[in-house]
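Troubleshooting log. The previous structure file for this entry was overwritten by mistake, so regenerating from the original sequence record. Sequence copied from the archived sheet and checked twice against the printout by T.R.
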Amino acid sequence: MNLSLKRAICYLTYLVVVLGVLFIGLKYQQHLFTVSRETFEIKGYLLYESSLPIFLGMILAIPRLLQNLSKKGHLKMNWLRLVILGLPFLYLSIIPILYFSGALIDWPLSRFVFGYYGANGSTTLNSITGVVAGYIIVTSFYKHAN
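Regenerated output below.
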């Protein structure tokens, strides 16, 4: 089979998987939202709403991870990248969970960031920071040749 055809099939398969996870994930999120409105139990919805963008970011990083894992060497983690970039984005994406679980007590930026979530708030910040966090977490793994 031609190399270009193989790559095209891989890209199409990857596209179907990403779109499938996205559409199924959003459909399930809508279901959880409906359930939370009926039962007044919002924790499950918030947990899922914060987790889905992180998972999507991880899926988007899979091609880079596979490319990196195909190299020879030992698997390492870029701790500096993970701590300086990954943890702040992860923190920003899970603030709603921390707030409603009672674990968020005047942590840095918590009041400022949570202002985006209120009754008329936007989930855009949560989505963007979650995707970035998931991507950074996965791409912090690399192979290092000895």
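The chain has a mean pLDDT of 83. Archived copy saved in two places this time.
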